Amino acid sequence: MTGSHSADRVVVEVEQALGPGVVFEHDDRLGLVGTSARTAGEWRGLDRAALLDSDDGHGARLAVLAATPASTHVGCRLVLEILGGWRLGPRVALLGVLPGTDHPSVELAATVGGFGPSATWLGPVEAAHEVRLARQRFRERRSHERLRGGRAWRGEEAARVEERRFSTPHSQAEYDLRRLPPRYLRGLEGLLDDDERLLYWIERPEVTDPGIVMRLRGDDRRAALLALTDRQLLWATDHMQPDRFLSDWGVDTESVPVERVTAAVGSTDARGSTLTVTAGPAERRYLLPPELADEVEVMATLLTRFTPAGAAGLPRRVYALEAVPFVDEHAERFGQLDLARELFARAAVASPLACVFSPRREGQRHAGAAVLGPDVVVFADERFTRAVSLSDVIALRCTLSALIGRVGVVTEDGIVDLAYPAPLAAAGTAFARLARRALADTTDLG
User: Fold this and answer.
1) How many Å separate Cα 226 from the centre of its chain?
2) Which fold has domain 329-441?
3) Which terminus of the chain has a lower count of CB atoms within 10 Å, N or C?
């Protein structure tokens, strides 16, 4: 392609360098550092990039083929003149050139971009229109949707939390989920709603060689995960220490709805870094290693945004409480369906939302049940019945393990819970999810 056009200039970010060059990595102290050489086949004068602050209509940035005199590196930002582009069905990609670079052949660029003869070539005017549309879609998404892409990491000291985040389809915490052990992922899958968003998480490593002071204090040495979503603060610890027989015994979890939180403070002392959360009538404390002090401070800052003071009068979310029917087969497989129905009736919950049945079995002489109502949770067995008002609940408990399942509530008086066979985990997690919504809805913000 020869000649020049009065084309728009745009800023793009290289996503894939296709030619030989230097591989750069970012160092917090040194900046960009070349760490190795990148070899490649025939260099065709093009790298794959994407238009900054754009949306191609499918949640990704608008693709741009960047013509440069030498292959760049991933993350390199370039100012390009847009020469045109291609449309193939819903897919659109643009062709740009770094000023001073010879213009590439359209046919060669189409081959590199994977556009065959059926693709429609867009001239400079049409390509500029696609740029404007992509930028408009990006602005609309950012203005009408909540802030996405929570890269809630340490930025400049004076920067607000929003200024430390990128607008991408997923938060950095969600992109980093692949780093988590499977037991934590199963916990998230069980306890998070389908449309819930993960904002930030901190992983606490297992302490394999505790000192004498830690032993004397009886500190919990299990690995743990502290996760913040747009709906809850979730604390998950290993159900049992991994050993040579099994490295994954599942997790014990504690959940505090964000609507319940009135204060969140991070602090560090000789024992470690602690996130202290005021929820309802009491406080909950989550201890992490002292080297995670910065992460704990970020978690406290983000969680504070959900408190009445931090929300600054924003509308409060109200959850739909759709009842989850009890699955008779859970009791029938133990031959105790009539007993289950008797316990549910004894709980006497008006408009029950969810039920969990724990049958008689080896090691458990009495059957039990947990029944959730809009403002109460009742635990019953063949000997007693105990009702707990949701206004007295500080946090919710749920165990997801191959050994046992458990649901319960944390109050100022202690923990009230129900253990059930591990194969009934689906009923337990459904109960826990609905209990979290009911607890959020009954929170008194006055």
Assistant:
1) 11
2) PH-domain like (2.30.29)
3) C
Its pTM surpasses 0.85: no
Q: In what order do the strands lie in the sheet with 232-238?
A: 198-204, 224-229, 232-238, 251-257, 395-400, 405-411, 414-420
User: Which CATH number does 9-143 carry?
Assistant: 3.90.80.10
- Our CA angle for 381, 382, 384, nearest 5°, is 65
Q: For the chain, what is the mean pLDDT?
A: 84
Query: Quick one: 330 exposed, middle or buried, by C-beta within 10 A (0-12, 13-18, 19+)?
Result: buried
Q: What is the tens place of the pLDDT at every residue in 114-148?
A: 888 889 999 999 999 999 999 988 887 766 544 34
Q: Give per-residue pLDDT as tens, 144-194.
A: 544 343 333 223 333 444 444 444 556 677 767 777 788 888 888 889 888
Domains 9-143 and 329-441 share a fold: no
Cβ proximity of 22 and 34 under 8 Å:
yes
> Quick one: tokens of 137?
């879609």
Q: Are the CB atoms for 232 and 257 separated by under 8 Å?
A: yes
Domain residue spans of the chain: 9-143, 161-311, 329-441
Selected from 1.20.120, 3.30.70, 2.60.40, 2.30.29, the CATH number assigned to the domain covering 161-311 reads 2.30.29
> Distance between CA 436 and CA 55 in Å, rounded?
35
